[in-house]
Records
---
Amino acid sequence: MNSNQERAYANFEMNVCSIAWTVHCFFFLLSIVMSSTGCTAETSHREQYNDIDCQRPETSTNLSGTGNQTNGKSEDFLVNGICSHQILQDGAASPEAKAVQNRMMRKASFKLSWWCKGDNGDQHKHDIVSFEKGNITTAGRTSKQISLKWESNPQTVLILTKPNSVSVRILCAQMVRWLKEHQKLNIFVEPRVISELLAESSYFSFVQTWKDGEPLIFEYPDSEISRLHSKVDLVVTLGGDGTVLWAASMFKGPVPPIVPFSLGSLGFMTPFHSEHYRDCLDSILRGPVSITLRHRLQCYVIRDAAKNEYETEEPILVLNEVTIDRGISSYLTNLECYCDNSFVTTVQGDGLILSTTSGSTAYSLAAGGSMVHPQVPGILFTPICPHSLSFRPLILPENVTVRVQVPFNSRSPAWASFDGKDRKQLAAGDALVCSMAPWPVPTACSADSMGDFLRSIHEGLHWNLRKTQSFDGPRES
Ligand SMILES: NC(=O)c1ccc[n+]([C@@H]2O[C@H](COP(=O)([O-])OP(=O)(O)OC[C@H]3O[C@@H](n4cnc5c(N)ncnc54)[C@H](O)[C@@H]3O)[C@@H](O)[C@H]2O)c1
Ligand SMILES: Nc1ncnc2c1ncn2[C@@H]1O[C@H](COP(=O)(O)OP(=O)(O)OP(=O)(O)O)[C@@H](O)[C@H]1O
C-alpha cells in the first residue's frame, strides 16, 4: 500500500467533528481579536474550515475563490461547528426539511480493518518484507478483505439514481419512504430526483438536495457539492455500473461507502439485488460491511502553453479509465508514453487506455487487457488497435506516474475521455499525466470482495463457460 492510500484510509477513521470543535473554538477567539482590530475573521475562518473538512490534495486547494458562499452562513457555522454548517441548499423548503438541515448533523464514524481468519482484525497490516539471515520473505500482504464497522449510527444517506428509468424511479420512492420511516435517516437526492418525488407526493418534502444547476465538481472544486462527503454517511446507487461511476465522480476527495443496487444490464460493480433492498440496507446500516476498496486514477491535462508542469487544469479522478484516442480523426494516433520520465513506447494505433483494476473488466478488457481483481493496486496500460504485432498490454505498479505526450509533429490532435465522458482535446505538445489517486472508492460487497468479483465475471461475461467434457471416451491408460 502506498503512502497516499494509507493517508486515505487514515482519514476514514478521523473524527472530523472533534477537530472541528477545536478549530471552531480557536477561530471564535480569533474572531473576537480580529474584530477588535478591524479585520474580518470570516474569510480565514472559512479557509480553515475548508482545509479540514475537504481534506483536499494540495493541487486542488484554491480556497480564496469561495467568495460569497459565506454570506449568511457564518452565524450558523459559529453556533453549530463544522458539521452543522449548511453546506447544501434546501431544495424542498418545507419547515421540516429546514429543521433537519439546521439540526446538528454529525457524520457517523467508522473503522476499517483488514479481515483475516485468526488475525487481530484491528491491526493495520502492510507488506512486511523481512531480510533475516539474508532470506527475503514477505510476512504480510495488504490485499485482504476489508471490513467496515460503524462506530456511531449512520444518519445521512445520499441516493443516486439512473435517469429516465421508471423502475428506478418507483424503487427510489419506496426506498426513501422505508429509510425515513424504518431507519429514521436523513435523505439527500439529486435536484432532478426531488422534483420527481415531489411530483408524486408532497409526503417527500423532508428529502433534501442541493442547488439545481450546481456547476460540475470538476470545474468548480470549491462549490457546495464538493463538500458533500462531509455530510453523507452512505451513498446508495440505483442503476448500472454507469451510476456507480457517476457516484464516484461526485466525490473529488474522500468517498463515503457506496452501496450499489443493480438495475442495469451489466453489473460488475453492482452486487446488490434491488428486490432485497430492505434486508441489504438493514444489514449494512448495522454493519460490519465487507468492502472493496476500488483504486482511482488522478489525471492532469498539461497544456503545451503551460510554463511548468504545475500550471495544469484541476485533476480529474477516474474509477474505470482514462482513454486517449484519435477521436473523430481518421489518422493514426501517435502518442509518446513515459513512465516516471523513462520512455516506455510510442503508441501508433487508435489510442491507449490507462485503466484502474476496477476498469479492467470494461473498455480495457474489450481492447485485450487482462481482468484484474479491483483491489489489486496498479495501472493497466492497454493499447487500442495498435498497428504493430508485438504490442501487448502491460500492468504497471501502483507507484508510477505515466505521461502520455502528443508529439509536436503529430498530424492530428488526440482526445482524452474520463470514464467514457468529458472529452478533452489534446493538441500537439499537450500531455496527460496520470497516477494513482489518494482517494479510493469503497463499495460494499454482497458476499466478499473475491466472491463478488468472481460472480461478476461469471454472470456478466459468462467467463470460461464451456460444457464439461463427458466421462465416456478415450482415457489415458
Ligand atoms: N468497447 C468498449 O467496451 C467500450 C467503449 C467505450 C466505453 N466503454 C466503457 O464504458 C464505461 C462507461 O460506462 P457507462 O455505463 O457510463 O457508459 P455506457 O452506458 O456506454 O455503458 C458501457 C458499458 O460498460 C459497462 N461497464 C462500465 N464499467 C464497467 C466495469 N468497471 N466493468 C465492466 N463493465 C463495465 C457498463 O455496465 C455498460 O454496459 C467507460 O468507462 C468504458 O470503460 C467500453
Ligand atoms: N445520477 C445520474 N445522473 C446523470 N447521469 C447518470 C446518472 N446515473 C447514471 N448516469 C448515466 O446514465 C448512463 C446509464 O447508466 P447505467 O450504466 O447505470 O445504466 P445501464 O446502462 O442500464 O446499466 P449498465 O451500465 O449495467 O448497462 C451512464 O452513461 C451513466 O453515466
Note: The chain has eleven helices and 23 strands.
---
Amino acid sequence: MQTTATESPQAALKGTKRLFISLGLFSLFVNVLMLTGPLYMLQVYDRVLSSRSTATLVSLTLLIAGLYIIMGVLDYARGRIAARVGALIQTRLDPKVFEAGLNRALVSGERGRPWSGLRDLEAVQRFMASPVLFALFDIPWTPIFLFAIFTFHPYLGWLAVAGGIVLVGISLANQQMTKRSTSEATATAMVSDSFAETVRQQAEVVQGLGMQGAVLTRWQKNRNRALHANLVSADVVNQFSTMSKTLRFFLQSAMLGLGAWVVLRGEMSPGSMIAGSVLLGRALAPIEQLIGGWALVTRARQGWTSLETQLAKSPTAKKHLQLPVPKPRVELVGVTVVPPEQQRPSLRAVSLKLAPGQALGVIGPSASGKSTLARTLAGIWKPVQGSVRLDGADIEHYGSDLGGYIGYLPQDIALFDGTVAENIARLSVAPDPQKVVEAAKKAGAHEMILKLPDGYDTQLLVGGARLSGGQRQRIALARAMYNNPALVVLDEPNSNLDGEGGEALMHAIRAIKADGRIVVIMAHRPAAISECDLLLVLHEGVVQAFGPRDEVLREQVRNHATIALRPQDGGAQAAAPKAEAVNQ
Ligand SMILES: Nc1ncnc2c1ncn2[C@@H]1O[C@H](COP(=O)(O)OP(=O)(O)OP(=O)(O)O)[C@@H](O)[C@H]1O
C-alpha cells in the first residue's frame, strides 16, 4: 500500500477499500465463530447431558477450543489491519495537515489562534486503532443473532428485539447528549493548551512582569471549562453505559427466565434456553461497546470534518516547470501588497530595479511598509497587484525552489531545535559542512561560533545552549547567506548587534556585493545603510524617494530642513534657500 502524501481526507482513503473489505470479511468470520459458544452449549445441554457421553463432551470441547483459537487469531488480525489503515491515513495526511498549519500561521490573524489539525488527525487514527471501530463492523450481525434466537422460540426473539430497540434508543440519546459537550471540551482544551504554550514560550516576560497569577487565572478559566465539558460528557456516557450494561444483564436473566417458562411448557429444550441467553449477549455487545466508546467516535468524526474544511482552505502548491537558478536581477513592477486578512494595502505601487552587486537600504518611519516589502521580496506575502521578478521571472514561478534562491533574515528571529550547523543549513537533512562554514564566514559569525561550547555542533533550543540576542542574529544572518542566494533580504539586521556584530554585518553586506549578488536591508539605524548604494524611502507604504544613497539622503535632509524651517504661516519657498544651504 502506497504511503504517498494526499491532499484531502477522501484522497487518503484511496486504495483502502480492499483493506476495509478484508476487515468486513474478518468480521464475518469472527461473528460466525461467535455462534460456536451458543452451539456448544446447545450440544452440551441437549446431547451430552442426556447421553451422559464423556467422549462427546471431550471431542466437542476440543472442537470448540480450536474454533475459539481461530476466532482469536482472526480478531487479532482485524485489529492489526484496522490500526494500520489508521496509521496509513495519518501518514498520507500528515504532510498536508502540517503544511496547512504553516499556511494558516502565515495568515497573520490566525497565527496566535489554536490550531487543531494534527490532533484531529490523531483522533481519527486513535479511533481506527480502537475496538469501537469493530463495534461498527459487528453491528450488522446483531439482526442475524436475533434471528437465531427467533429460531429457538419466537417469545425469546421478541424479548431480544425489544431489548435491542431500547439499547439503540439509549445509544441515540447518548449520541445526542454528548455531541455538544464533546465538541466544547475539544475546543476549550485546545484554547487552554495553546495559551499554556504561548505562556511557556514567553516565560521570561511572564516572570519579569510578575504576570504569573494573571496568566494562571486566565489559563485555568479555559482549562476548567474543558474539564467541566469533559465531566458532563463523561457523566452522560457513564450514565448511558451503566444503563445499557444493567439492561443487558437484566435481559440475559429475563431471557433465561422466559426460556425456562417456555421449557416448562415443553416448547423448547433447556439447551436452547442457555444458548438464547448467550446469543443475546453477543447480539447486544456491539451496541453496548458503541455507547461506551462514543466519545472516541464523536471526536474522530469531528476531526474528520474539521480536516476536510481545513485542508480545503489550505492552498495546494502549484506544480511549476523548474526554472534555472536565477541570476541576481530583481525588479518590482507596480507592487501593491495587502497583508493577509487586512483591507488596506501596506505597500502601494512600488517599482524599482536592482542590478547584480547592488545593496539597497530601505528606510522609513514605523509602519511605513519596510517589513511588508521584506516579506514580499521573500515571497511570503503575494502582491495583490504587480509582480516581483527575479532574473526576469515572477518569483511565484519558482515555486518551492524560491526559498533556496533567497536569503531572508526576519525581524523576529527563530532558531530551531538542532545544531548550529543544521540551523545555518536551514535544517537540511545532510548539511554541507563546507557551505555552512562559508556562510558563517561571510556573515562574520565563524569566530563567534567557534567559541561556542561545541562550535558548529552546539545544540540549540531543546537542552542546548542559550544564545544572546546578538549571537542568534548572527547565526540567522549566516542562515540567510547559506548557499549563496541571489537575493538576500535583511529586516532590521542590526537591532541586536554590538560593535563587533555590526562590523560583521557590514562584512556580510560587502561579501554579498563582492559576489555580485543583491542585498536589501530594512533599516532603522543609519549604520545599516552605510554599505548601501541605493536608498528607498517609504512613507505609509508609498515610495517617497528612490535612487543613489547619497542623493536620496541629501534630498531627505533638504526636505527635512524645508519642513523644519518652514514658518507656520509662511510657505516652503521662504525656507527653501536656507535648506539648500543646509545641504551644502
Ligand atoms: N503580520 C501582519 N498582519 C497584518 N498586517 C500587518 C502585519 N504586519 C504589518 N502589518 C501592517 O502593515 C503595515 C506596515 O507594517 P510594516 O511592518 O511593514 O512596517 P515597518 O515599516 O516594517 O514598521 P517597523 O519599522 O515598526 O517594523 C502596518 O500598518 C501594519 O498594521
Note: Confidence is low (pLDDT under 50) at residues 567-584.
